[in-house]
Specification:
Radius of gyration: 15 Å
Shape: globular
Number of domains: 1
CATH topology: Jelly Rolls
Largest sheet: 5 strands, antiparallel
Order of helices and strands: EEEEEEEEEEEEH
CATH architecture: Sandwich
CATH class: Mainly Beta
Number of helices: 1
Helix content: under 10%
Strand content: 35-45%
């Protein structure tokens, strides 16, 4: 499975650093929702779902966490640990997040507004959806 990273150009000097995020430029879709996850305990696993249509870019603004991405055939583990590197998560990709550092702030940029009907929260159902897409 190909893991898609997005380089977010960092601009800075002795005062600090700045990264700009722009829809349809360094984020490859129209941005409709932004949220962040923080204060996650080390032993907690988050995610455990896929989306039928939604695309996301995840960025560790501070600290780090690991993602497991699964396309129904292969799994890949990815460490997010830089505010200048985004992880593009396409639709129909199962994701699990774990090993959060105490200071982790994970920003997620989404292509759609929240829609519970877009979630696939059962892994067996996810495998069926992926198999149906492959047969089209």
């Amino acid at each position: 499975m190909e893991v898609k990273r997005i380089h977010l150009q960092s601009h800075g000097d002795e005062r600090g650093a700045l990264v700009s995020i722009e829809q349809n430029k360094n984020i490859p879709f129209k941005i409709k929702r932004v949220y962040y996850i923080y204060d996650t305990q080390k032993s907690v696993v988050r995610g455990l779902h896929a989306h039928k249509e939604l695309k996301q870019v995840a960025i560790a603004l501070k600290g780090s966490c690991k993602f497991i991405l699964d396309d129904g055939n292969e799994r890949a583990e990815v460490l997010l640990d830089s505010p200048s590197s985004g992880l593009l998560i396409d639709s129909c990709i199962w994701r699990e997040m774990h090993d959060f550092t105490d200071d982790c702030v994970l920003l997620v940029i989404a292509s759609e507004h929240y829609d519970e009907d877009d979630y696939i929260r059962d892994y067996t159902q996810f495998k069926k959806v992926v198999a149906n897409y492959a047969n089209k």
